[in-house]
Amino acid sequence: MDNTNHLKAPKPNPLSASASSDPILSCQHVGFRVDAPGGELVILDDISFDLGSGETLAIVGASGSGKTTLLGLLAGLDRPTEGDVVLAGQGLSGMSENERADLRQSHVGFVFQSFHLLPTLTALDNVMLALEIAQHPQPRQRAKEALEQVGLSQRLAHYPRQLSGGEQQRVAIARAFANGPKILFADEPTGNLDRTTGTAVADLLFDLNTQSGTALVLVTHDPALAERCQITYTMDGGRLTR
Predict the structure, then answer these.
(1) What is d(CA 65, CA 203) in angstroms, rounded to the nearest whole number?
(2) For residue 150, which of 117, 131, 178, 126 has the smallest C-alpha distance?
(3) Whole-angstrom Cα distance, residue 214 to residue 220?
(4) How do residues 47-88 score in pLDDT, each as one tens digit?
(5) What is the DSSP string of 132-160?
(6) What share of the chain is helix, strand, coil (3-state, %, to 5)?
(7) Which pLDDT value is given to residue 197?
(8) Residue 34 CB coordination number (10 Å)
(9) Given phi > 0 = left and psi -120 to 50 = alpha, else beta, which region is 54?
(10) What CA–CA distance (Å, rounded) separates 147 from 76?
(11) For residues 152 and 123, is the Cβ–Cβ distance under 8 A?
(12) pLDDT, tens digit (0-9, with 9 covering 90-100), for 97-141
């Protein structure tokens, strides 16, 4: 793939979400295509927007519309076939897989619909492991503080199977915020929770976003959750509209 197109003079961004001249995230005419039995399949087509530090953005749309694919490209888990994603001032298309991984480790947090906790580790150890991988100087102390922030100071030694769904997602949120990310990507963070628990988890997510100044990109089917974000985009047919 030719990775030089992101070096060309940029076109104006029609979906600029931020007035900031230095956004934390910039999606620049991103497209994603895959080969299919019937010919090339366009998953994403010419997507552009900017997101400033501390801003919250929701992406809504039907299943299969490309929301999760876009989230993966924004986080550098994959490369677009067209355009570029600039995260924390660095263009991802020109970076190696290891370089993108290092950037995620330094600047990005993740929360998923499935909590992705290691079942053989306690709540404390699940958060500590992420901090140790990021080479945090005091992983145990910071993990305790992060779990206290999400109201789990009495659950440090509990294993995932001993925690409710809401508590498991709180551990996942503590893990995501523990290393002070500049941006958090959340993929259906309340999708596996009942309405009451989901609302409580969403409250926590937005409270931590406000306290930390971390930008938030949220993929959701829940219109009530999307309405809590400052910006809402709709994904339809591989295109993003406001």
Answers:
(1) 27
(2) 178
(3) 18
(4) 999 999 999 999 999 888 889 899 999 999 999 999 999 999
(5) HHTT-SSHHHHHHHHHHHTT-TT-TT--G
(6) 35, 25, 40
(7) 92
(8) 10
(9) left
(10) 27
(11) yes
(12) 999 999 999 999 999 989 999 999 999 999 999 999 989 999 999
User: Which tokens go with 240?
Assistant: 């993003």
Q: What is the pLDDT of residue 21?
A: 56
Residues 6+ apart with CB under 8 A from 12: none
Backbone phi, then psi, for 112, in 5-degree steps? -115, 165
Strand partners, 232: 58
Both tokens of 167, joined, read 């508590």
Bridge-based pairing state of the strands 56-61 and 82-87: unpaired
Q: Is 97 helix (H, G, I), strand (E, B) or coil?
A: helix
**What is the band of 19 on the pLDDT scale with cuts at 50, 70, 90?**
very low
